[in-house]
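Researcher: Please translate sequence to structure tokens.
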Amino acid sequence: MGRTDYFHDPAAPRPNTIKVAVSAVILDDSGRILMIRRTDNDRYAIPGGGLEAGETVSEAVVREVLEETGISVEVTELVGVFSNPDHVIAYDDGEVRQEFSICFRALPTGGTLRTSDESKEVLWVTPAEAESLDIHPSIKLRITRGLESGTPYFT
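Model: Translation complete:
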């Protein structure tokens, strides 16, 4: 299913849902960030997805990262809560979702890089290399905050 992201766009459709999503900034021992190239919008992003009934947010992070990248992780810290009402995502099926994502830091614990139905490319990139990738501003903010230490971010 395709999607269109609207960010600070007065012509954006009005949201009709909010869904809890999780994401993770995952760094390897060399300080590289685990990234995916999404199949639904062809942009680069950190791994993440929707919380499912019956799981904790930490369990959702572990599941989503493994599903999208083939990498097992351990969740270590909260980066922040990202709930910008000026970022809406319109899906082909008519759903228009307001952003609401809880982002964590996580450490890789095993696995092998692989793609999935949601990721057409999976790669490790340095923060400098990430600058040249097509990354949505809301994901760039999560990465920036994830590379910093300190108190969790929230909107």
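Researcher: Any highlights?
Model: Helices lie at 57-69, 127-130, 137-147.
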